[in-house]
Design goal:
single chain; 476 residues; mainly alpha; Serine Threonine Protein Phosphatase 5, Tetratricopeptide repeat; 4 domains; two-stranded antiparallel ribbon; 23 helices; 74% helix; 2% strand; globular
Length: 476
């Protein structure tokens, strides 16, 4: 009888052990004995079939790993996303497709649940916020009639956890949904959509700064070590900057098109409150940030808030606002002092480059073209993927084409302008449309081939543009 009871206890213990989840209820990520052999076999089956694109064949092995060995490997989750998305795309039965979609959502939930244990086995940064952001994007993509509130809440939670580490697509979609919520409920979501826009704008700039840092790092490594892989990595981050800049433009567009606030609206909201908040630096900075991002630099609320803020705490945005204040008054030299101070105070490479560009544009409007180019070149040196400064230089050249007594040679200045425009659209997809319009416009003013031939210039020959431009271009 005693022997029978012991046998039963051992059987219960064995059943309990087999019901445990490896790596969670015990320290054995892969299991023990035959269980570990099975785990290794399933890892191999899953990996090989994913590499071969055989996602249906990979699915059973992945499913067993996901269920029984949830922290055996991080690629259980990365491979699982690939497998499930492939099956979702291929499935024609709506119910089966929905089952796969639900599994994908459960995959993200389980990864978040075990994120700390998974982080222990990889050097790659894992985070619950980043995973939640990916879940939200796939929720929007795959769930039929996805709930606006649910999707927005997931994205907002992801953003609050990741902040400047958020993926730009997460930030972009968060702003998109926030704008949609505002259109549905202007009163209830009015203040929130403004705050979301402020935060989204800051976070996407953080991403751009991070990518710029990586480009500089890998370019320097390439110069030092000559490893082609570093050059490829730098190019890869360059493409990511292109995408992030488009996302940033979209964020601006979603907010502006939401109708949440025009410059006039912001003036009406904030102007009456500036005086009572003149010592409230947080409030002043909010007004400055929002109005400067929306280019509301003519409004009194922006200008006054900038003066009060600069007196409390010198910041680049406050100094920029004071510069606009003096510029509006016609005190140009004083304005330029503040603009230079703003550039000096700015710590973000992305923002500093944009400030240099803005000051360059001011100089161009003052017809001080050489000075405008100087600031445009500063912007380019700070951000090699920034197309607007090239547009600015091209416009300066086109506005000041005459350097010779020969009008035919003066027309060659437009070749130099077109060089800058071609460069702009090659590095920055956000300026392509504007660059093409200017190229079409300036091409009307380039010299005729026969006129150039009479002066000894053939197609492909170089010509030096004189005067303040002092730059070589090629005859088309």
């Amino acid at each position: 009888m005693k022997k029978s009871i012991l046998s039963m206890l051992f059987a219960v213990a064995a059943a309990t052990a087999s019901a445990q989840i490896n790596g969670i209820d015990n320290d054995n990520r892969f299991g023990v004995g035959e269980d570990s052999i099975n785990c290794i076999q399933q890892i191999s089956n899953c990996r090989v079939n994913v590499q071969n694109g055989s996602f249906e064949t990979a699915y059973p092995a992945w499913k067993e790993l996901f269920t029984k060995y949830p922290v055996a490997r991080v690629d259980t989750y990365t491979n699982g996303v690939k497998i499930l998305k492939a099956l979702i795309a291929k499935e024609t039965d709506e119910q089966k497709k929905l089952d796969y979609i639900n599994e994908l959502m459960a995959l993200y939930d389980q990864q978040i649940k075990y994120i700390d244990k998974l982080q222990e086995i990889t050097k790659t940064r894992l985070s619950a916020g980043n995973t939640l952001g990916k879940k939200a994007l796939d929720y929007i993509r795959f769930i039929p009639k996805a709930s606006l509130d649910s999707a927005y809440t997931m994205l907002a939670q992801s953003i609050s956890m990741e902040k400047g580490e958020s993926e730009y697509l997460v930030t972009q979609n968060w702003m998109k949904l926030s704008a949609q919520k505002y259109k549905k409920d202007p009163t209830g979501h009015g203040e929130q959509v403004i705050q979301d826009y402020l935060d989204a704008s800051v976070y996407v700039v953080d991403v751009l700064d991070k990518y710029n840092e990586r480009i500089e790092y890998y370019n320097n490594r390439y110069k030092e070590l000559g490893d082609p892989k570093d050059s490829v990595r730098a190019d890869g981050y360059g493409k990511m900057i292109d995408a992030a800049r488009i996302a940033r433009s979209n964020i601006d567009g979603y907010f502006i098109n939401s109708g949440a606030a025009s410059c006039e609206d912001l003036e009406a909201i904030y102007a009456p409150k500036i005086e009572e908040n003149k010592n409230n630096i947080a409030y002043l900075n909010k007004v400055i940030s929002l109005m400067s991002m929306l280019k509301c630099t003519e409004q009194d609320a922006y200008l006054t808030a900038s003066e009060y803020a600069l007196a409390i705490e010198p910041t680049s945005k406050a100094a920029m606002g004071c510069g606009y204040r003096y510029f509006k008054r016609g005190e140009i030299d004083k304005a330029m002092e503040f603009f230079d101070q703003a550039i000096q105070l700015e710590t973000s490479v992305t923002n500093k480059a944009e400030m240099c560009y803005k000051v360059g544009a001011i100089y161009m409007n003052l017809k001080k073209y050489s000075k405008a180019r100087e600031y445009a070149r500063q912007a380019i040196s700070l951000n090699s993927k920034f197309g607007d400064p090239y547009l600015l230089i091209a416009q300066c050249y086109a506005a000041s084409p005459n350097w010779s007594n020969d009008n035919v040679l003066n027309g060659c200045t437009y070749f130099a302008a077109i060089d800058k425009l071609n460069r702009a659209k090659a590095i920055d997809p956000t300026v392509k449309e504007q660059a093409n319009k200017l190229i079409a416009q300036y091409s009307n003013y380039t010299p005729a081939a026969e006129d150039l031939f009479m002066r000894g210039y053939n197609k492909g020959k170089s010509v030096n543009i004189g005067g303040w431009i002092n730059e070589t271009t090629t005859i088309r």
